[in-house]
Amino acid sequence: MAIVRRKFDAVIVGAGGAGMRAALQLSEAGLKVAVLSKVFPTRSHTVAAQGGIAAALGNVTEDNWHWHMYDTVKGSDYLGDQDAIEFMCRQASEVVYELEHYGMPFDRLENGKIYQRPFGGQSQNFGGAQATRSCAAADRTGHAMLHTLYQRNVQANTQFFVEWMGLDLIRDEEGDVCGVTALDIETGEVMALQARATLFATGGGARIFSASTNAFINTGDGLAMSARAGVPLEDMEFWQFHPTGVYGVGVLISEAVRGEGGYLLNKDGERFMERYAPNAKDLASRDVVSRALTTEIKEGRGCGRDADYLLLKLDHLGADVIKTRLPGIREIAIKFAHADPIHDPIPVVPTAHYMMGGIPTNFYGQVVAPYKTGPEEVVQGFYAVGECACVSVHGGNRLGTNSLLDILVFGRAAGNRMIEDLKKNRHHKHLPADASDKALARLSRLNDQKDGESVAQVGDLLRKTMQTYCGVFRFPDMLKQGVEKIGEVAERAMRTEIKDKSRVFNTARVEALELENLVEVAVATMVSAEARTESRGAHARDDFPDRDDDKWLKHTLYFREGQRLDYKPVRLKPLTVESFPPKARTY
Amino acid sequence: MKKLERARWRCRRGLLELDIVLQRFMDEYYAKLDEAELEQFETLLDLPDNDLWDMINLKETGNGNLQPVLRLLQKV
Q1: Backbone phi, then psi, for A501, in 5-degree steps?
Q2: For residue range B27-47, what is the model confidence (pLDDT) as tens digits?
């Protein structure tokens, strides 16, 4: 079927920090760039990042990119690729100063330099004293970054397609990517956006879990489009859970609460973190605290009728401290948990927060897959950055403040690489005749479905299945059942029916398409998790409690077709420095 | 055309907190708003996420003309 085509030099799907940083690079080089976004760019999920951007500027205490690299490798539980991690940490200062020149309102020290604050997992001298490495704009770093990048992109004539959704990647018979098929939500029109370079920056997909800190837009669209087009997904078993999401809604209660002296209690009123992490206690790293909460619940020491949450106690800090230092958190607790922390503890559970896995790329942002002759062949014309990509700098576990750094460094690197590649590829490749057929077939299936399933019900079932069978702790029998259950959910999602068949602003259609994307992410996660018989970083197996470097120091690659798994080695060799060999990870 | 769907989609935000509060608002109050209130709601939806959230969460007053709808948002 013929649909309208439009031609650009580059098409970017996603207008969060990563997409906009790459777009800026391209637009300022004079290229014609289209950026698609489901929502207005400054409402992307980057806005939720509070902590800051890690960069060894050394403005407060002595610092060094090599120390930052060590922390990142160790934090990743040695699953991070050390060439990419060196690349990121070395460029950190430069991308932060660049952002400063773009007008980013960083907090300042008295001497006028960028203010930096300490954050978990950051050390001096390879595991020594706490480092002070996080560059922030109050608790609104992500917000400030998005606004800065958006303004700059407008000046550079980046063309935004707001309220557009990517449907499918377009690949020709050689496997090269030549654009995307996309839906204009406003008109319901489907269009082929043809490009010499296509970049995915679609963010995460933690909406696959019922307890999630992610905004509703985070449905893993880019991952699903890649998987449907035959591109593998890497390390999908690794999801970071934040230990303190508000029970029942997922809204995040920041580590700041525990930093100020708040602590966790079980139903017996016991401060249980003293048992799990005698030194760091409630301030131990996210994966350690999340596992402790889950163990307490599993062993029957959870609170409430279903014994399925723990309590975060703050009242001992006193009303004054709570009102002056944690006012936003108090209001969140009142609004979402109906508990005023001045008197009552906040009910919390470990909550899915960040996806370490994603579309496999090298540190130029080029998508790589074992589809021709080598294990990491470049997929021509295709790039990915940010949470949807797996470079992999976060490996099995991401450190706080490394995500904003990730999107700046690799957003810029991908932009630069695309500019180089576009100099060589002067002409658009021919769009295959069937370029948009699959996307159109999915739409017409949805339109024609009779006696089908409810999108909301199947979505709920998907999220419950992932939470129950593939949560913080993973059990062998549960994972096996989980693979079956999620397969059943996937089948039901193929039979969804929508009542509204109209074209203009049909949000029911968009939500049904998002559900199909969530299914791809969920199945990839469950299948990858079932196969990895070790515990590493955020992937915690009850039956294999230890890291197994002999067997599992490798990246998972999930292929949608036949749900096949393959593996590739971790890149242990950095660019210029000595490798950090795997050793036990203790804090 | 499709005023409700448009409003519902523009309640999709970068912050989960706003997603939840705005969805509750849509379910409980949107259908009952008069013309003036609908306009206030549109104006509020155009604000950046953090500004809107602070107005709702920290009870920041902001523009007095927006008070009626803002009070409802603070309540849900």
Answers
A1: -105, 5
A2: 999 999 999 999 999 999 999
DSSP annotation string for A495-534: TB--S---STT-HHHHHHHHHHHHHHHHHHHHHHHHH--S
How would you label A134-165 residue by residue, b for 16+ Cβ within 10 Å and e otherwise?
bbbbeebbbbbbbbbbbebbeebebebbbbbb
The widest CA-to-CA distance across chain A, in whole angstroms, is 69
Helices (H), A394-453: 402-424, 437-448
What rounded mean pLDDT belongs to chain A? 95
Q: Do A253 and A260 contact (CB within 8 A), yes or no?
A: no
User: Chain B partners of A455 at a C-beta cutoff of 8 Å?
Assistant: none
Question: What is chain A's percent helix, strand, coil content, to nearest 5?
Answer: 40, 25, 40
Q: Looking at the predicted structure, is the pLDDT value of residue A1 above 60?
A: no
Q: How many CA atoms lie within 13 A of A22 on its CB side?
A: 36
Of A13-22, A308-317, A327-336, A441-450, the least confident: A327-336
pLDDT of A379 > 60? The answer is yes
Beta bridge partners of A5: A192
In this prediction, residue A94 carries a pLDDT of: 98
For residue A60, pLDDT over 70 is answered with yes
Q: Is the reported ipTM for this assembly greater than 0.90?
A: yes
CA nearest neighbour of A66 among A122, A132, A125, A133: A125
Count the helix, strand and coil residues of chain B and give each as a percent rounded to the nearest 5. 75, 0, 25
- Which residues on chain B are in Cβ contact (under 8 Å) with A47? 13-15, 48-50
pLDDT at B49 over 60: yes
Section A4-21 average pLDDT:
97
> If you measure CA to CA, which chain A residue comes closest to B53?
A328
Instruction: Quote the minimal CA–CA distance from A38 to chain B in Å.
Output: 9
Which residues from chain B sit within 8 angstroms of residue A143, using beta carbons? 48-50
Establish whether A43 is a catalytic residue: no
A44: left (phi over 0), alpha (psi -120 to 50) or beta: beta
Start-to-end C-alpha separation, chain B? 27
Whether A238 has its CB under 8 Å from any CB of chain B: the answer is no
Which segments of A99-153 are extended strands (E)?
116-123, 130-135
> A193 by DSSP, 3-state: which?
strand
